[in-house]
Write a structure and sequence with these properties.
Elements (H helix, E strand, L loop, with lengths): L4 H14 L3 H18 L3 H17 L3 H17 L6 H15 L6 H17 L5 H14 L2 H11 L11 H14 L3 H12 L10 H6 L1 H6 L3 H11 L10 H14 L6 H10 L6 H14 L23 H23 L3 H19 L2
């Protein structure tokens, strides 16, 4: 350990920035913030350490920890706005609001944070583009389709600015919109820069590949679906922050209906689930596990989340019913908060697609 704690903290921050693995960046950033708070170092260094902890927690799926760390950033920034630039602070603020939807936060509190974010944008001289983009994402996740569409169109009225998401993420969002409109030609055209390697980020194009699994399969383009599965799955495995996307790939295997495939992925999802704070991601995982278990005649799972019934690890029917019940309970909580039937409808939609898939399988 360095004699001067500031030197130790600076070294940790350098190591966190250089780390390639999300979990490693979180661990090192968390330790830097702990030391900065413990030793009461100068506000600027403490801010940088807590920001590293915030971003590490957010990107590793530690939602509650991320929001606690961001609370410290807000308090520090409102005391001394010279600690960082408005661009950096507002970028982090948008990320923090995105985390709110993952927890059982009342919708009124989410709206309150959005309003504050918009006011801060105006005071800093930014257009409302980032506000509308964030509102689109939140309304989409809450199942508020018309509000989401209005927000998406409002954001398009303004050019990209310093607060814009990375180009790969915004391109992936455009692909999502095109697929929702069932415009496959447009979706494939938009996805081309991602699939050809011209655009990428930490989660893209893996997430973009997942978006094509359903439409390719149900259009009978089985080879294209398999290609997306093969190329996209490695990019979402092994991280609880990506577990919701991993569930999309398991859902595809449920549609394919091959009982020999998916065991390792299902096991990985079940092992990560106890660490997942996002109710949305947990819902998706349980919903998809129930679909995948429909095609299993035997099972051998030794690690199940707390609450799973005894013997469920070797009984596909028992585990399937428990997983579906978990999805229903989570869906009811989220639908009550959002005042929409989106999650209940998603369960029924997936089960309907599974029945269709049985008729389409090659």
């Amino acid at each position: 350990m360095h004699e001067d704690p500031r030197e130790a903290i600076e070294e940790l921050l350098r190591r966190a920035s250089a780390a390639h693995l999300v979990e490693e960046r979180w661990r090192i950033g968390h330790e830097a913030a702990r030391l900065a708070d413990y030793y009461g170092v100068e506000p600027e260094l403490r801010y940088r350490a807590n920001r590293k902890a915030f971003r590490g927690a957010a990107f590793s799926g530690r939602t509650s920890e991320a929001l606690v760390a961001f609370g410290r950033l807000v308090a520090a920034y409102d005391t001394d706005p010279e600690l960082t630039s408005p661009t950096i602070f507002l970028s982090d603020y948008g990320m923090a609001i995105g985390e709110l939807i993952c927890l059982k936060i009342p919708r009124a509190e989410v709206e309150k944070s959005l309003t504050d974010f918009k006011l801060r944008l105006e005071r800093a001289g930014f257009s409302p583009r980032a506000f509308h983009r964030l509102r689109w994402a939140l309304c989409r996740d809450m199942g508020l389709a018309q509000e989401a569409e209005r927000a998406y169109q409002a954001a398009k009225q303004y050019p990209r600015d310093a607060l814009a998401d990375c180009l790969a993420c915004e391109t992936d969002n455009a692909v999502e919109i095109a697929l929702e409109a069932q415009d496959m030609v447009q979706a494939e055209r938009l996805a081309a820069p991602l699939f050809e390697g011209d655009l990428s980020c930490g989660s893209k194009p893996a997430v973009t590949y997942s978006r094509f699994l359903r439409p390719y399969f149900f259009e009978g383009r089985f080879e294209d679906a398999e290609r997306c599965f093969r190329l996209g799955l490695p990019g979402v495995r092994g991280s609880r922050a990506q577990i919701g996307w991993a569930a999309d790939f398991l859902e595809y295997l449920a549609f394919v209906g091959d009982p020999q495939r998916g065991g390792d992925l299902a096991r990985e999802i079940l092992e990560l689930l106890p660490e997942v704070e996002s109710r949305h991601c947990s819902f998706e995982c349980y919903r998809v596990l129930a679909l995948w278990l429909e095609c299993r005649e035997s099972l051998s799972l030794h690690s199940l989340p707390r609450g799973a019934p005894p013997g469920a690890g070797s009984d596909p029917g028992l585990l399937r019913q428990w997983a579906r019940n978990q999805a229903v309970e989570l869906g009811e909580l989220l639908d009550e908060r959002n005042k929409t039937p989106r999650y209940a409808e998603r369960i029924l939609e997936g089960e309907g697609l599974l029945r269709r898939a049985r008729e389409l399988r090659p």
